[in-house]
Specification:
about 290 residues, mainly alpha
C-alpha cells in the first residue's frame, strides 16, 4: 500500500484521510484481521506499556548489574517537587521512560517500540500526555497506531537495530515515532508529524550504541528519558509551524547511511564510547566478578 512517507502523503491527500486510517487499513490487509481485532491487539500492547511505565515508580526492581535500579523512583519523586527545572510534566515523562528501562533490565515484560532498548520512549510520551490532557483511550490507541506506521516505514527503508545503525536507529527512531504521535494527539497535520519525526532524527544523527558492560542499562535508560523529552520538544517545534526543509524519507536515508558509516565499535559491541571508558570497563569487570562468585 505504501513503502515510504511520500506514499503516505500521497495516499492520504488523494483519499482525504488521516494517516492513522491508512495505517489501520494496511495492517488489516497484511494480517487479515478486522479493524476491531487490530485495535484489540493494540490495546493489549498499550496495557503492557502502562504496566512497564508505572511499575518501577514505587521502588527498584533489581537487575543484573543494578546500574539503573531506583532511577525511575527517584525521578518520579523529584517530579512531585516544586524545584524542578523542566516542570512536573517532563519529569513524569522521564520517570516513566526510566521505569520501562528498569522493567526491561530486570527481565520484566515490555513492549518493544521499536526495540527493547528503546521501549520506554513511546509509552512515556503517550501515557503522560494522556494523563496531562485527560485523553480518551481511543485517541491514545490511534496515536500508537500512527507511531507504529511511522516505524514500519523506517523498517522498510533503514533499520531500528543498534547493532546495525547505532542508537540513532533505536532510541532515535523511537523518539521520532513518539514525536509524530504527540503531534497527532495535539491535532496536528501530517506535515507537522513528518517534521517532528525528522527533527528528532536530525537531532540525534550519529548517536552511537555503547552499552556499559554490554547491558541495556547505561546509557540506554538515560537515552530513553532524554529522547522522550526530545520527542516532545520536536513536536512543539513542528506544532509552532516549523516545517523541516528536508523530506522525511531523505532524513531516514541519511540516518541509514550514517549508521553504515559507524565503526563496529560504536554499534552495540561495548567496545567504544562510554562502554570503553576506564570506569566503564571497571564496571564490566566488577559485574562479571559478581556473576562468577
Amino acid at each position: 500500500m505504501y513503502s515510504c512517507f511520500a506514499d503516505v502523503e500521497r495516499l492520504c491527500a488523494e483519499r482525504g484521510i488521516e494517516p492513522v486510517q491508512l495505517f489501520v487499513e494496511n495492517e488489516m490487509r497484511l494480517t487479515g484481521r478486522t479493524e476491531r481485532e487490530v485495535y484489540d491487539r493494540m490495546d493489549a500492547r498499550l496495557t503492557i506499556m502502562e504496566d512497564a511505565a508505572n511499575r518501577a515508580l514505587s521502588g527498584p526492581l533489581g537487575s543484573v548489574g543494578g546500574l539503573i535500579d531506583g532511577l525511575a523512583q527517584a525521578q518520579w519523586r523529584y517530579a512531585q517537587g516544586a524545584r524542578t527545572l523542566c516542570g512536573a510534566f517532563l519529569n513524569r515523562v522521564m520517570a516513566r521512560a526510566l521505569s520501562c528501562s528498569e522493567v526491561n533490565a530486570s527481565m520484566g515484560r515490555i513492549c518493544a517500540a521499536p526495540t527493547a532498548g528503546s521501549c520506554g520512549i513511546l509509552p512515556a510520551v503517550l501515557l503522560t500526555m494522556q494523563e496531562q490532557y485527560a485523553l480518551p483511550r481511543r485517541s491514545v490507541l490511534d496515536a500508537l497506531l500512527t507511531a507504529s506506521g511511522f516505524g514500519a516505514v523506517v523498517m522498510k527503508n533503514a533499520t531500528v537495530a543498534g547493532a546495525e545503525g547505532g542508537c540513532q536507529a533505536e532510541c532515535g527512531v523511537a523518539g521520532a515515532m513518539a514525536a509524530a504521535a504527540a503531534v497527532q494527539l495535539r491535532g496536528g497535520s501530517l506535515a507537522q508529524m513528518l517534521s517532528a519525526f525528522s527533527l528528532v532524527l536530525v537531532n540525534c544523527m550519529g548517536l552511537v550504541c555503547d552499552p556499559v558492560a554490554g547491558l541495556v542499562q547505561v546509557p540506554c535508560a538515560q537515552r530513553n528519558a532524554s529522547q522522550a523529552v526530545g520527542a516532545l520538544l520536536a513536536a512543539d517545534m513542528a506544532l509552532s509551524g516549523q516545517l523541516f526543509p528536508i523530506p522525511a524519507d531523505q532524513v531516514v536515508e541519511a540516518m541509514a547511511r550514517v549508521g553504515r558509516q559507524l565503526p563496529i565499535e560504536l554499534k552495540e559491541t561495548a567496545q567504544g564510547g562510554i562502554a570503553a571508558t576506564r570506569r566503564g570497563r571497571e564496571i564490566a569487570r566488577e559485574i562479571l566478578h559478581r556473576e562468577r562468585a
